[in-house]
Amino acid sequence: MKIVIAPDSYKGSLSAVEVARSIEKGIQNAFPDAHTLCLPVADGGEGTLDTLVAATNGQKVSVIVTGPLGQKVEAEYGILGDGRTCVIEMAKASGIPLISREELNPLKATTFGTGELIKQALDDGFTSFILALGGSATNDGGAGMLQALGLSLLDKKGNKISTGGAELTKIHSIDLSEFDKRISNCQFLIASDVENPLIGPHGASHVFGPQKGATPEMVQILDNCLTHWADEVEKVTNVHLHDLTGAGAAGGIGGAFQAFFPCRMKRGIDVVIEYTGLQDALIGADLVITGEGQVDFQTASGKTPMGVAQAALVNKIPTIIIAGSVGKGIDVLYQYGVVSVHSIINKPMELTEAMETAGELLENAAEQVVRSFFYQQSKMKFHTV
Question: Which of the four pLDDT bands, split at 50, 70 and 90, describes residue 381?
Answer without folding.
Answer: low
